[in-house]
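ok so i was messing around last nite and threw this chain in just to see what happens. nothing serious, just curious
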Amino acid sequence: MKTFEDFVRKFGAQGLGYFQMKEDGLKGPLVKFFSEEDIALIIERTELEVGDVVFFGAGEKKTVMDYMGRLRIFIAEHERMNLIDKDAYEFVWVVDFPMFEVEDGRVKALHHPFTQPKNTDKDDIEEIDSIAYDIVLNGTELGGGSIRIHKQEMQEEIFKLLGIGEEEAQEKFGFLLDALKFGAPPHGGFAIGFDRLMMLISKKSSIRDVIAFPKTQKASCILTKAPSEVDATQLRDLHIRLRDKAKA
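result:
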């Protein structure tokens, strides 16, 4: 997207709006929907001055946070703003990840269902945080990890919140639940993606530029010609049978 107008055309239908402070007051396509008291409050809260612009989003939380995050990057990278020092290395720890998200009325684990929740006394399930952490360099995630659930009772409760019944939980994760019965100690981990780090250090825009044998977008390797056909003996050893292609 080359211009702000392009951005608005793409995300405006999803709830992106803006106000601009001019000498004769607050202007924008949505001003007519706000009362004078609301406009005065917006100006006061955002401390708007002539020439300032305030952006806002309305709609589903996940959608709004996604395109507002893109908007921040778009503005920062714009040639008129030039807010990003491309020669600097800026690190940040991201913590307090939400434990759950609700999508189409269904509760899902935002990271994975074995992450230890941080606070379980919230009325809104989406306000429950997890003990997870990521390290980010210049806007790119280098690595991360979490503290895992080590109590059987808590793991079973998490499965219930995710709509996983006892029978399904035992079938899919019985080995884990059985192990937790014996008193697993608190445990966690952290891992860094070395190739991502090399991409940033070498100032490349694609991770493929620092991988020795990068795969294409179709997961094929140009160097080794993988995936390639295998003979019948190999398939038999692996107990794999190929289906005949459907006739047109």
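not much to say yet. The chain has a mean pLDDT of 85.
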